[in-house]
Amino acid sequence: MGPIIARRASLRGVRIVTWNVNSVKQRVPRLLQWLDERRPDVVCLQETKLTEEAFGALLGEELAARGYAFASHGQGQWNGVALLSRVGLDAVERGFAGQPAWSGKEEARAISAVCGGVRVHSLYVPNGREVDSDHFAYKLAWLAALADAVGAGPAEVALCGDFNIAPADADVFDPAAYVGHTHVTPPERAALGVFGAGGLTDVLRDRWPEERVFSYWDYRAGMFHQDLGMRIDLVLASAPVAGRVAAAWVDRAARKGKLPSDHAPVIVDLDVAPDGDLGPVVPPPSAPRRPRGTVRLPQSKD
DNA sequence: ATGGTTGCGCTGCAA
After folding, report:
1. How many Å does it take to go from CA A17 to C1' B13?
2. Which nucleotides of strand B lie under 7 Å from a protein CB?
3. A145: pLDDT strictly greater than 50
4. Alpha-carbon span A149 to A12, nearest angstrom
5. Among the listed residues A137, A156, A161, A177, the one whose alpha carbon sits nearest the alpha carbon of residue A18
6. Where are the domains positioned within chain A?
7. pLDDT digits (tens, 9 = 90+) for A13-52
8. Which residue gives the smallest C-alpha to C1' distance to B15?
9. In terms of Cα–Cα distance, which of A110, A113, A59 is closest to A87?
10. CA–C1' span, A22 to B8, in Å?
């Protein structure tokens, strides 16, 4: 069996996902079952709300059992990002060169590593809070600095995370509802546009140019049930990576049921690279492990 | 309806 599993692994592509889980601690059963169901190769998490030490204590054993290497960057309470990978996790960087601070502190909003030959970033872009507030300026400065850092980085790159920006009006349920609010303003979209000018592709929109596709729905007022959401969780890929995209979708089923995050995972499948180099691939465990507890993802009907 | 929910953590703030 071993050689067969290894051969299959070497022939498949790479599944990269990004998911703002809104507290790992509250999401452990769902996260583990979701990993077993979707079997992603590289996972970018945001809003972990755990220190690096607490992340390892909470998930280390379960992730190792599933073949994932991991690295996290956290501060507890707020923010926090992590990377899981079973196609290599090399040259881990916490934060990025020139990352702006907030109130004198560099927040835990970025981590990156080389996974399967691609530098993958897990990003939690500052929210911005109110238009033209100090936090809004921080958001724009943070994105500009990120663009500079990425521009100086390797050609094979994927920026994955919660950008807290809807790239276009089609990415919100009702543009009129957002007038005067963050996430949709010209300066924010211009900050996002810098990545496009640098050659990065918004993989989901490229794949589904006309479809209504959201990744975040407010917890309040039945917004998810009515599909009143936004698309703010993005995968921006450079040409060598974007050219390998075989599938790209939002896993809405993960937003349903009990104790969901308010974000759904964005899933991107890449075909095997032209040179076939995926890095070391760790075979999956022989059988999926059931998480403790009873939470199950409901079956999608819409 | 100036509303609604969740997380963190214990008071109200962030999202």
Report:
1. 30
2. 1, 4-9, 14-15
3. yes
4. 31
5. A161
6. 14-282
7. 999 999 999 999 999 999 999 999 999 999 999 999 999 9
8. A127
9. A113
10. 11
